[in-house]
Amino acid sequence: MNAPSPFRDSSTHSWTARHLVALLGANVMLAFGPWLVRLADTGPVSAGFWRLTLAIPVLFALSLREPAGQRRLAGGTIWLAAGAGLFFALDLASWHVGIGMTRLGNSSLFGNSGSLILMVWGLIAARRPPRLLELTAVAAALAGAALLMDGSLQISHKSFLGDLFCVLAGLFYAGYILLLSPARARLGQFTLLAASSLAGAPVLLVVAILLGEPVWPTNWTPVLVLALSSQVLGQGMLIYALRHFPPLVIGLALLTQPAITAWTGWLAFDETLGALDVLGMALLASALVMARTGDRPRKAGGGPEQDLARDQASD
């Protein structure tokens, strides 16, 4: 991407009430994603297929507003976008399967584990010892995950397996970010979202068919709302708002997702949380905040992983 990085140094961040509303609104919309997946009368992977497919025309329309040079898919960029679409499809497939098996609050927290995975990958790539904040984030994440998974195991082995699927989704999402990052230097944000969605949708369709899921919905409302809220409005508002905030504010805003999702699970599906579950959620949520806080953009534009991790922020 020829334009300068959208993330300025933390000392120069400037935001208004409009930016804050967009940031919080995006997290609220994304928080209802697991609920909509459960409401869909298709299979969970099929819901992911419709999330991408129904959003593609809107994303391509938005990409037309970007400069012509940032919309040119050619050479190796095509393969990068296609590979990223494959990883994103596997992310959605794993996450949506997990949503159907575990508690909604767990699915939201574990599905956002890509932030921690990217932080660890950054340490490996930089070949430097971790800072105290990073060690604390990893320790809090492990402790929180252990408490939540133990709570799931006490409910059923199916719920525990759902947690693992959501963690696997976080791994695939980190791979998506890392694979797509070289293309970010050449392409606009919506062009990348549209291209990766176009590449990922057929993968989700094939997986859904292989799993024997019903694909064609009889009630289009849940999948249509899922596509517009999560893939278009949620991601779009994040792209608009995140450049204006320091990582700490981004991390704190992220906490609205598991809180709203857990509340939705309680109201809609009578999913209750014990004291240890709440402690586990608090530990894992604080780890996500610390991971975001430690992920500060570099001088002179920052690295592609940092830029993409924010632009493509949560599922």
Question: How would you describe this protein?
Answer:
- The chain has one domain.
- The longest helix has 28 residues, at 157-184.
- By secondary structure, the chain is an all-alpha fold.
- The chain has helices at 17-31, 33-39, 44-63, 76-99, 104-111, 114-126, 132-155, 157-184, 189-210, 221-241, 247-254, 256-269, 275-294, 304-311.
- The protein has 14 helices and no strands.
Explain the layout of strands and helices.
Elements: H1 17-31, H2 33-39, H3 44-63, H4 76-99, H5 104-111, H6 114-126, H7 132-155, H8 157-184, H9 189-210, H10 221-241, H11 247-254, H12 256-269, H13 275-294, H14 304-311
Helix pairs in contact: 1-10, 1-12, 2-10, 3-4, 3-9, 3-10, 4-8, 4-9, 5-8, 5-12, 6-8, 7-8, 7-13, 8-14, 11-13
Task: Give the number of helices.
Answer: 14
Percentage of residues in strands:
under 5%
Query: Structural class of the secondary structure composition?
Result: mainly alpha
Question: What is the overall pLDDT average?
Answer: 78
Structurally, how many domains make up the residues?
1
Q: Alpha-carbon distance between the termini? A: 23 Å
Largest sheet: none
Question: Can you summarize this structure?
Answer:
By secondary structure, this protein is mainly α.
List keywords for this structure.
315 residues, mainly alpha, 14 helices, disordered N terminus, disordered C terminus
